[in-house]
Specification:
The complex is a heterodimer. Chain A is of the alpha/beta class. In chain A, 49% of the residues lie in helices and 10% in strands. Chain A starts with 8 loop residues before the first helix and ends with a helix. Chain B is an alpha/beta fold. In chain B, 36% of the residues lie in helices and 20% in strands. The chains are: A alpha/beta, B alpha/beta. Chains A and B meet through helix 7, helix 8, helix 14 and helix 15 of A and helix 3, helix 4 and helix 5 of B.
């Protein structure tokens, strides 16, 4: 390989990583506003404006109350879902879950956007939206039923207006658009219905999937009331966001003809305000919006991968000070909005939630195989019935033998 | 009773579904003003409007994926895919999402989406316009697949697909779109998932579906001249398959030929052969013989007549069956 310009093997990985990180760095500096209210040091800006498609948008009216009660409730949700994440990771490590998909680092993006939704809105998650699930009233244990392997669902989507997790990347973005097209038709038929929107959650990796493109084309063509909420957590398993896109993801919206906004995804106050604006925009008939929540996945993609193999520890250290919980805690403390008692009580609440979660997981009942035959089709199906009969007879043979044991 | 083509019968069936249920809507590229490349949806946008008959962007995954979303909102979308070979960009949405929605939700959600696919060859077209991919979908649990072969079935089966709570793919035999027949719109609709015995016989059974049903009937008529009494079954439903009707017939005739346009390897014919071997082995006078396409991509139009099963290929199969 003399004379080759291919880097020597011992430097190759590092070279590639540095090149990727450099590209990410450039992207971060690219010409797109990143909306932020709550700075990493805990100081809170008074207003929130940005230029979108040549128009100055003032998001200030969409800032929810910044009083102690509201901010503390946001903090509480973020704290509980992080504790939930830690407990779930532990359960996976102990062999109680087949897999876990951690969200640590993304609490603000999820709690902020989820809390902006109204009951009549409908969210279509990917598989990491545990924080959004919490805001929709899904019980923490219900989320783990999928990862425990006792169901592929876990909750009633219609009851919570929160769809089931989707493991095939970006598939749900089209479902969100179709659902929004249904909302349009319902409102034409009955204008007295409350205005509603759907939200499609996806990540920077999924943004490369064709279904994201098609969903944005359909949304724009039909002016569907849908908000595309992209959590750019910088990594699609081991591949950096720079490999997914050469422009900030928020700017892609311009190509489809609707607004795109980049918000500091670690700032729960800004995320909530921007999502409330976007939902209002969509619900009121102005069409779709893309929000890019710029954030960082602090841990692995799933418990099956090892981030130390693909990213630099300096990268994680760089993001540590921007932690969504740390900055809100700093704000609450410096402004005297919460005291030690609040944090102590929350810690105790989180501990008991974790205990209850563990108990719930360990006591989850395994569905019987026969129930699997029952939900393949809505209407009777002769092949399923025949195979069920076979299975029952086959199993019955073992039961007889078992009696003698 | 009116005489109409299969295309017109589907059009009338869709019209009836749109009229009866305001939640029914049609989606697809070119289905509006143009009425579809085969004019199957001709005039429906004019009569039901752009919110019910939706000219969509050119994106099959988009058409099917948004239809799933509409179904989740309570609508009953009927998607048109222009040609068989173009369904594959939507394959992911059909197999990983649509087919599994009910199971994934433990029965809480239904996915009453209909996908219409004109399929099969014999029209002298270019590549991707003549394929028979039904086996790829039949292998996926959660889907139902039907294929009408005459206007009467076409009129009712499309409506039954729309009213079914499960996702249904309707493979429409495009080279038979202009086949005319009587349609009785007042006759009660039968079970869309059952096979029909179209011709009675005692010596052998031919099972065919969709575009090959007229071929099978003609072959049976020709065999009669040779003194062979051949029963012909129109399968009508590819998933589920009405094995009871086929078994009953083979138990009487002792010989079975399965004919379809799709390649025989890994196809529906193999499934029928295996099941009938299990169910009626002792009744069989000969192995079940498959007549179908070869293991190659659908060939260029100038040679498709050599690829598509015709009367002679079916008669040759009968000869083999009788030789045992």
């Amino acid at each position: 390989m003399s004379g080759s310009r291919v880097p020597a093997a011992e430097f190759e990985v590092e070279e590639v990583l540095r090149a990727a990180h450099s590209a990410i760095g450039e992207q971060r500096e690219a010409s797109v506003d990143m909306l932020q209210v709550l700075a990493p040091d805990g100081t809170m800006a008074g207003g929130l404006t940005a230029e979108i498609d040549g128009e100055m948008i003032d998001f200030s009216p969409y800032l929810a109350a910044t009083d102690a009660a509201h901010l503390c409730s946001l903090y509480r949700d973020m704290f509980l879902i992080r504790r939930f994440d830690q407990e779930s990771t532990a359960l996976q490590r102990q062999g109680q879950l087949a897999l876990w998909v951690p969200l640590t680092g993304q609490e603000a993006a999820q709690i902020g956007s989820g809390r902006a939704l109204q009951p009549q809105d409908y969210a279509f998650p990917t598989y990491r939206e545990h924080g959004v699930a919490l805001t929709r009233g899904v019980e923490p244990a219900e989320i783990l039923r999928l990862f425990r392997g006792v169901t592929n669902g876990g909750w009633d989507p219609r009851e919570r207006n929160f769809h089931l997790y989707t493991l095939v990347l970006a598939a749900q973005s089209l479902h969100a658009v179709g659902y929004a097209m249904g909302i349009q038709r319902d409102q034409l038929a009955d204008p007295s219905l409350p205005e509603a929107a759907s939200v499609a959650y996806f990540g920077d990796g999924a943004s490369s999937e064709g279904d994201i493109h098609e969903s944005m084309v359909f949304a724009a063509s039909f002016n569907a009331p849908v908000v595309f909420f992209c959590q750019n957590n910088q990594w699609a398993i081991s591949v950096p966001a720079a490999v997914q896109t050469r422009v900030p993801l928020a700017r892609r919206a311009e190509g489809y003809g609707f607004p795109g906004v980049r918000v500091d995804g670690n700032d729960v106050v800004a995320v909530e305000a921007v999502t409330r604006w976007a939902l209002d925009h969509a619900r009121s008939g102005k069409g779709p919006v893309l929000i890019e929540a710029y954030t960082y996945r602090m841990s692995a993609h799933t418990t099956a991968d090892d981030p130390t193999k693909y990213r630099l520890s300096g990268d994680e250290q760089e993001w540590q000070p921007r932690d969504p919980l740390v900055r809100l805690e700093a704000h609450l403390r410096t402004q005297g909005l919460a005291d030690d008692a609040f944090f102590d009580e929350l810690t105790a609440e989180a501990r008991s939630m974790a205990t209850a979660l563990r108990d719930a997981v360990l006591s989850m009942t395994v569905p019987d195989m026969e129930s699997r035959f029952a939900s393949v089709y809505a209407e009777p199906h002769p092949l399923v019935q025949e195979e069920l009969r076979f299975f029952q007879q086959y199993e019955a043979g073992f039961v007889d033998e078992g009696k003698h044991d | 009773m009116a005489t109409m083509t299969i295309a017109k019968a589907i059009n009338e069936g869709l019209r009836a579904s749109l009229t009866q249920d305001p939640r029914t809507l049609l989606m697809g590229e070119d289905i509006g003003e143009l009425g579809g490349v085969y004019r199957v949806t001709d005039g429906l946008k004019r009569d039901f409007g752009a919110m019910r008959v939706v000219d969509s962007p050119l994106a099959e995954s988009g058409i099917i994926g948004t239809a799933i979303g509409l179904a989740l909102r309570g609508y009953r979308p009927v998607c048109e895919i222009q040609f068989d070979g173009f369904v594959f960009p939507g394959f992911n949405q059909i197999t990983t999402q649509l087919a599994k929605l009910r199971t994934r939700s433990d029965g809480m959600l239904s996915a009453p989406v209909v996908i219409r696919i004109p399929y099969g060859g014999g029209i002298g077209s270019v590549e991707h316009h003549s394929e028979s991919p039904e086996a790829l979908f039949a292998h996926t649990a959660g889907l139902r697949i039907i294929t009408p072969s005459n206007p009467q079935d076409a009129y009712w089966m499309i409506q039954q697909a729309v009213s079914c709570e499960d996702p249904v793919i309707v493979f429409e035999p495009k080279r038979r779109y202009w086949l005319k027949g009587e349609v009785d719109t007042s006759a009660p609709a039968g079970d869309p998932f059952s096979a029909h015995v179209l011709r009675a016989g005692t010596d052998a059974t031919i099972v065919a579906y969709g575009p090959l049903v007229p071929v099978a009937l003609a072959a049976a008529a020709a065999a009669e001249e040779d003194g062979r009494s051949v029963e012909v079954i129109d399968l009508r439903s590819i998933s589920p398959i009405d094995f009871d009707t086929v078994t009953e017939s083979v138990t009487r005739t002792g010989r079975l030929i399965v004919a379809h346009e799709a390649p025989t390897f890994g196809g529906i014919g193999g499934e029928i052969a295996a099941r009938i071997s299990e169910r009626a082995f002792l009744s069989l006078e000969a192995p079940v013989i498959r007549v179908g396409g070869f293991h190659m991509p659908y060939p260029v139009a100038r040679v498709e007549e050599h690829y598509l099963p015709d009367i002679d290929r079916i008669l040759e199969a009968l000869d083999r069956a009788f030789a045992y």
